Backbone:
């Protein structure tokens, strides 16, 4: 139990306004554990929240839902998601998506679409703080050979697992991924793990494209200099078998639709623009299926953690930067401005 009932937290106060503040150490409800946060990643959805463009996030708010840490307090008898018993000092990551398990969507297996879903860091205080309370049933223990930094990537990797699954891509198929931010890169890693080799990617940042090439992308298209649709037609005449748009602008959604081979599928996981005008007559004539991909199910999360245990991500040094939590406001500002060198920034409480 923390001896000091006050803690430092990075608090979002409104559009482009974020600062370190003293906050009370959270009290635990029955069945919860208190985690001392080791590291917490900044998610793209939090950038839109930071700008005031995400209706779910209301200031003042402690964000942070991609995290890992150590259990320092346990309230009541409880069990972790993997069936283990929580112990003091145990290293864990957590699934921040809390669901009821009883509604029609949960019973049908679509727990990510739970009618009453809540997200840690959105509907309750998150991990951009020294401590965060989490229901024990949301926590997964980490093996000794898996770092907290890698464990914190389970959540975004689970998003990628679901997107790749929905794309229905298989070995021997071609796949085009638009956007080499964290989710796009992780989709690339998941597809490669499935045995998909013919993978094309696009982005406007040469540094991100370089990382994608080192991760096994067959071809990288610089969207700032090249005609993306012309490049895809040259690489895969007639279109690709599956497309994942990990950006979510009108431009990338249009490119995704027009890159797909007739009768195939385009997965939209990016959320940059709320609305986009698309050629739906083309969609009808070519029988292209567009599907959204939101978050992940319990099974997706478990699969993501298994992939990390198997060594899916051998190193994060080429795309992840770690900073102290006190630098969080500047990290958000740099990511929004596009001046950050790293694809993802993780914050570590001091």
Residues:
């Amino acid at each position: 139990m923390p001896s000091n009932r006050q803690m430092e937290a990075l608090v979002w106060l409104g559009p482009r306004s974020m600062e370190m503040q003293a906050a009370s150490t959270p009290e635990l409800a029955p069945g919860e554990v208190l985690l001392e946060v080791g590291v917490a990643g900044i998610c793209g959805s939090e950038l839109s929240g930071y700008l005031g463009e995400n209706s779910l996030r209301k200031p003042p708010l402690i964000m942070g839902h991609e995290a890992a840490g150590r259990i320092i307090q346990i309230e009541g008898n409880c069990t972790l998601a993997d069936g283990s018993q929580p112990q003091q000092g145990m290293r864990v990551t957590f699934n921040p998506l809390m669901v009821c398990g009883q509604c029609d969507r949960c019973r049908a297996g679509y727990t990510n679409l739970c009618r009453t879903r809540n997200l840690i860091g959105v509907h309750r205080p998150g991990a951009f703080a020294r401590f965060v309370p989490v229901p024990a049933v949301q926590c997964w223990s980490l093996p000794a050979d898996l770092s907290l930094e890698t464990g914190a990537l389970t959540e975004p990797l689970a998003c990628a697992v679901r997107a790749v699954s929905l794309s229905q891509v298989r070995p021997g198929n071609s796949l085009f991924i638009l956007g080499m931010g964290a989710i796009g890169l992780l989709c690339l890693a998941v597809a490669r793990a499935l045995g998909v080799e013919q993978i094309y990617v696009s982005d406007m940042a040469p540094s991100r494209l370089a990382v994608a090439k080192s991760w096994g992308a067959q071809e990288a298209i610089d969207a700032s200099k090249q005609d993306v649709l012309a490049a895809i037609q040259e690489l895969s005449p007639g279109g690709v078998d599956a497309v994942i748009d990990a950006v979510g602008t009108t431009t990338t959604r249009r490119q995704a639709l027009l890159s797909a081979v007739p009768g195939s599928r385009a997965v939209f996981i990016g959320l940059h623009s709320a609305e986009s005008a698309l050629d739906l007559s083309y969609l009808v004539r070519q029988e292209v299926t567009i599907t959204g991909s939101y978050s992940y199910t319990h099974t997706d999360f478990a699969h993501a953690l298994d992939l990390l245990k198997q060594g899916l991500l051998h190193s994060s040094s080429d795309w992840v930067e770690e900073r102290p939590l006190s630098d969080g406001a500047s990290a958000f500002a740099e990511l929004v401005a596009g001046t950050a060198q790293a694809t993802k920034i993780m914050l570590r409480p001091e």
